[in-house]
Design brief:
Elements lengths: L1 H9 L1 H6 L1 H15 L6
Amino acid sequence: MCSLFMKGEMNRREIYANPSSRAHAWFMLLSALIPLHSP
């Protein structure tokens, strides 16, 4: 999680420049915070 956060900080400029990458980053973050459990 920490490494992913650091990577996000390093690629912040690219993420903000590309809306699709930004959305993907948010999805990854939410997935990390809230694990998806299949029923």
